[in-house]
Amino acid sequence: MLSLSLTAVLDRARVAVIQTTTTNTAPAAPASITRWQQQTRADNAARAAALPRLGVSMNRTAPPAAPRVLATYPNADTVRSGRPLKVGEAVLWNFLHRLALDLGRERGHTALPSQITFHLPAVTVAGVLGFTPRHLRRLAAGLERAGLIDQGGHAQRVGLRNLWDGSLWAVRTDTRADPPRVTAEEWQHNWRPDFEADVIGKTGAAAEMSLLLSSSAEPEMLYATAKRRAAVPGVQNAPLPSSRDMPTPAGLRDALDGLAALWHLHGSKRPRAVGRLASQIAAALCEPERRRYWAGVVWQALTAQDEGRTGGLSALAAQFDRLAADLLEGAPWKSPGAVLAARLRPSS
Fold first, then answer.
1. Rounded CA gap, 11 and 7, in Å?
2. Which of 181, 195, 225, 267 shows a CA-CA span of 20 to 30 A to 217?
3. Is 241 in contact with 316 (CB distance < 8 Å)?
4. b/e for 241-266, b at 16 or more Cβ within 10 A?
């Protein structure tokens, strides 16, 4: 009985040891450690609440993108569209087209314009390309007939005189557009605000080009000179402001003086004088876009005067004198140029 009791005690002891090793029950943490953990969490939360909050939004608004400036333009041959040009005309066209594109980039066009207009004295163009002024006029007329450019002399008043300050060149840049035309606003714009100082100091385009040619300047230097003169400060890609000015009797009187002097000119000098006078008449009537029309009127009057027919320069001058008198008396016409054109039509 004693041995059985001892055996039973040993079995119970073995079972107790096995149960103790297999339960793996972790001892409970002391109460002091638990309180320390809770206090640490509370302190961290208090510090986080005291920190300044950064106003960072997840939906950021991107800054507005800069306007995308036009990077490429059609080349000169593309705009020409296979139009047959003489050698000199092609040289002038490539020069004017290159200059127009350079000015277009400086003005920051964001879309392809149909044309780019700039002011540049003809003496500068002739000097850069090595043409005589007469040859340049013939080549420019060929480009006008091809529908690639529009051009004409531009004048402004210096003191009591109307002087030619250069030429306007409207160069076609879009093959799909109509032939270029110098607008009325562009004719009336003051492209040379320093022209009076050039006249007084004799430092204009003619003197500048003469100095460059005498010093045998490189072609690129000559081109840079032309570009600097064409890049007038303040001329942007926005349309020039329009003008509502009415014709003045003084401007018509100047046209009368030009008509009186025209008949006494030599035949070789008449074409250029007629072109200048037509620009002067168109400017005086505030309709520069009709310069070609007035050139035709002056040519017809000059031919009639040479042939001794009625309707010559004297008759044309009389109509200008009559229009100037009407304006002095306050004639309420919206378009005095149209009134003058109607008076010049032969009666049926």
1. 6
2. 195
3. no
4. eeeeeebebebbebbbebbeebeeee
Taken in order 125, 129, 130, 135, the sign of the CA dihedral is negative
Q: What is the CA angle 44-50-52, rounded to 5?
A: 125
Of the pLDDT bands very low, low, confident and very high (cuts 50, 70, 90), residue 165 is confident
Mean pLDDT (the chain, rounded): 75
- CB-based contacts of 203-210 (< 8 A; 24+ apart in sequence): 204/121, 205/121, 205/123, 205/124, 205/166, 205/229, 206/121, 206/123, 208/124, 209/123, 209/124, 209/127, 209/128, 210/127
Contact 163, 155 (CB under 8 A): yes
Could you identify the residue written with the tokens 């127009």?
A: 100
Position 240 scores a pLDDT of 35
pLDDT per residue as tens digits for the range 271-328 = 888 888 888 788 778 787 788 888 889 888 888 888 888 778 888 888 888 887 777 7
The pTM for the full model equals: 0.51
Helices assigned H by DSSP within the chain:
2-23, 31-50, 76-80, 87-107, 122-129, 133-145, 184-188, 195-201, 205-214, 219-230, 249-262, 270-284, 291-306, 313-328, 336-344
Q: What is the DSSP letter of 268?
A: G
| SS3 of residue 16 by DSSP | helix
**In this model, does residue 216 exceed pLDDT 60?**
yes
